[in-house]
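Example 9 (inverse folding). The structure is encoded as follows.
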């Protein structure tokens, strides 16, 4: 129930996605928190927590103090106190779980960030709020035209009207510093409202706009991720991934945040592996590291000068050879420690899994081509005429 499409119609039934998922206009499930304490009763004599969580457009949230005697539920539109006006938002969380969310974000009950809720929104204020929300795409398009006319190197990614319609916040991304003083004057004259420009990063832009990632799921930054940690190419190197920008970059153009999810597990597993610079000294020659399989604990080495012939060794065997090299002892050869045959450039790894679907010919879906006998008949007729 987070956007105009999901609001109730005249009969009281929900519209849009009908609360069954994301409707695509405002991403109803952006950064939602499941209230697992909602069905539990408070101990006798304890009052419910008087602060609730309110969500505005996209992922913008805040904590607000309830006035005495006002009871709200999740999904109720409320009027919040703002400077020189008010704003309208939806209650997304109530009860004791709000206390945990505030503790997670290091916000105390007497903090200045916790403002007050004035009252519940009436139908006139809700209709007014929907009208301003419907104007946002048109205003955004016009603002982009004004910015392009001034030659500013910036991208206006989103526009958010306040509930009373007296102020609009324009979110933009830019590589450098932008002088938008003239832009504010032109937009204030064109729209007759107060203008606030707020610069956001590329990850914040992706979280506000939302979308589907290459994994087929909604973007993590727009559904549950709030901590945008920096991602470096070292995370891909630890996980033995090819440094392909097309595969490692997300919709924001930066490295995918999911590269950090399993990074700690890979780093702890790599502690038992020898470094790539370590060489294996044998009587037959010096073995140089080629690649590794972290999950199977397998490593491949090749002799100097014989780069096309790789020898597959287990992690235990490699550690044994390194221990002997530290004692100034050389092993006879790498072949003594490998259980499988040596792989050459012309040979392939043994097939572990065969894809039956992949072996089938996809041309079976095509219509069979009819033999073209017209040309053959013409050639025969021409030969007969020439012979005659």
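The amino acid assigned to each position is listed next.
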């Amino acid at each position: 129930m987070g956007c105009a499409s999901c609001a109730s119609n005249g009969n009281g039934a929900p519209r849009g996605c009908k609360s069954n998922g994301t409707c695509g206009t405002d991403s109803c499930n952006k950064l939602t928190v499941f209230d697992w304490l909602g069905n539990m009763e408070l101990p006798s004599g304890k009052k419910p927590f008087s602060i609730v969580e309110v969500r505005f457009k996209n992922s913008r949230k805040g904590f607000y103090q309830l006035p005495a005697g006002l009871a709200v539920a999740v999904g109720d539109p409320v009027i919040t106190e703002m400077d020189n006006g008010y704003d309208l938002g939806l209650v997304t969380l109530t009860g004791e779980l709000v206390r945990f969310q505030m503790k997670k974000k290091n916000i105390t009950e007497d903090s200045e960030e916790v403002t007050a809720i004035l009252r519940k929104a009436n139908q006139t204020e809700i209709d007014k709020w929907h009208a301003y929300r419907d104007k946002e795409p048109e205003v955004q398009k016009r603002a982009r035209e004004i910015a392009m006319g001034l030659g500013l190197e910036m991208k206006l990614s989103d526009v958010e009207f306040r509930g009373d319609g007296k102020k609009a916040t324009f979110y933009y991304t830019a590589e450098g510093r932008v002088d938008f003083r003239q832009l504010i004057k032109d937009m204030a004259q064109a729209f007759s409202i107060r203008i606030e420009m707020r610069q956001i990063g590329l990850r914040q832009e992706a979280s506000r706009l939302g979308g589907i990632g290459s994994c087929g799921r909604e973007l993590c930054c727009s559904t549950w991720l709030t901590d945008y940690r920096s991602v470096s190419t070292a995370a891909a190197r630890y996980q033995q991934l090819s440094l392909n920008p097309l595969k490692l970059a997300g919709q924001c153009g930066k490295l995918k945040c999911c590269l950090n999810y399993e990074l700690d597990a890979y780093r702890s597993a790599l502690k038992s592996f020898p470094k790539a610079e370590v060489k294996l000294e044998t009587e037959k020659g010096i073995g140089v590291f080629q690649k590794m399989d972290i999950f199977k604990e397998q490593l491949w080495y090749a002799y100097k000068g014989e780069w096309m012939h790789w020898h597959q060794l287990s992690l235990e065997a490699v550690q044994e050879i390194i221990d002997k090299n530290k004692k100034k002892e050389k092993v006879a050869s790498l072949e003594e420690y490998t259980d499988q045959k040596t792989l050459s450039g012309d040979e392939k790894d043994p097939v572990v899994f065969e894809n039956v679907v992949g072996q089938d010919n996809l041309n079976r879906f095509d219509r069979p081509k009819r033999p073209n006998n017209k040309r053959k008949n013409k050639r025969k007729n021409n030969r007969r005429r020439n012979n005659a």
